[in-house]
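Weekly modeling sync, notes
Attendees: S.R. (lead), two postdocs, one rotation student

Agenda item 3: backlog of single-chain predictions. S.R. asked that every request posted to the team notebook include the full sequence so nobody has to chase files. The rotation student volunteered to paste the first one in as an example of the format we agreed on. Action items at the bottom.

Example entry:
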Amino acid sequence: MSLLPVKRAVLESLLLSDNSVKPAQIAAETGNQLNSTMMHLIWLVRVGYAVAPAKGQYRITDKGKKALGIPEINREVAMSILAQSQKEKAFHFYADVEKPLSLYAYGIKDFIEKIPKVPAQSLEFHLSRGDFENWFNCIGDIELAKKLALLKQKKLVGEQLCKVLQEVVTNRCVELTRLL
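Predicted structure, as returned to the notebook:
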């Protein structure tokens, strides 16, 4: 089933949030009116792409993730994503083009530890170029790559970017660890 752009935007907003979300927050993030957002949420629940675990709260389902092109993860894939990578597969942080920082992330857990150590400008540089999403795709985490692509659209900078990036990657790591 093909999603209209506005329904896709609402579903992507649900994907980016790792907790249940209120319709007003989704409306603000997508630039839609609350009534329109509610209509789309009701449709997404009806087709099984979202659930309402509590009154006035919505969350994406596995079926909703699949509609966005995100495959289901099993235990083996989760183990592979969480594994440390070799130096040649590590993420290399740069301040700018041809300005390496001599900081590397050897896996998702190491990436989380490096975020506070990396200057915000470097995080902005890599996010804007799609470097993070490409690296997470390479290590097999299509869902996290998609989340970072959505995060890039928010155009966050500085400390706010550091905080949100840390939260998104940490939540994903916790989710993958639960599969083990």
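Discussion: group reviewed the output briefly. Residues 158-179 form the longest helix (22 residues).
Action items: rotation student to repeat for the remaining queue; S.R. to check formatting next week.
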